[in-house]
Design brief:
Blueprint (H helix, E strand, L loop, with lengths): L8 H21 L7 H8 L3 H10 L10 H7 L3 H11 L5 E2 L1 H8 L3 H10 L5 E2 L3 H5 L6
Antiparallel strand pairs: 1-2
């Protein structure tokens, strides 16, 4: 069994999730056309085969900034799941413990304990670090 190299969920998030979200944001803002399947596969942590299958099902000939989200919404990876849940919650300005637990698939009781420690009921996305740093990553 491999030993986990992260002290908490924040370390996992900044090493694995945040850089991809930033790259996706840049990609979408650049109005890219004909984004390579390999790039989409790497950014969304899904196989090239899965990207191709999604493209086929969605009748996408080439991936662009405009249809990238269609691929993402149909992807099966954790990062796709996070983005899909954020969209379902309408990208909240403030997150409740329920929102954070749901979006990031983290045990609600751990999230609630972190919110209670901070003596808050809602946080902004900029404050997620204060919550995530308290969550053990297994």
């Amino acid at each position: 069994m491999l030993k986990n190299n992260y002290r908490n969920f924040w370390e996992y998030y900044i090493r694995n999730i945040s850089p991809k979200l930033e790259q996706i944001d840049i990609l979408l803002k650049t109005k890219s056309y004909n984004i390579p399947i390999e790039t989409v596969s790497l950014l969304l942590n899904i196989s090239r085969r899965e990207v191709a299958e999604i493209m086929d099902k969605q009748n996408i000939i080439c991936i662009t900034s405009e249809n990238f989200l269609s691929v993402m919404l149909n992807g099966t990876s954790y990062i796709c799941d996070i983005l899909r849940k954020e969209l379902k919650k309408n990208f909240p300005q403030k997150y409740s413990p329920e929102d954070v637990a749901y979006i990031y698939n983290i045990n609600y009781n751990e999230i609630k304990k972190a919110f209670d420690f901070l003596n808050t009921k809602k946080i902004s996305s900029k404050s997620l670090k204060a919550i995530f740093i308290q969550i053990t990553y297994i």
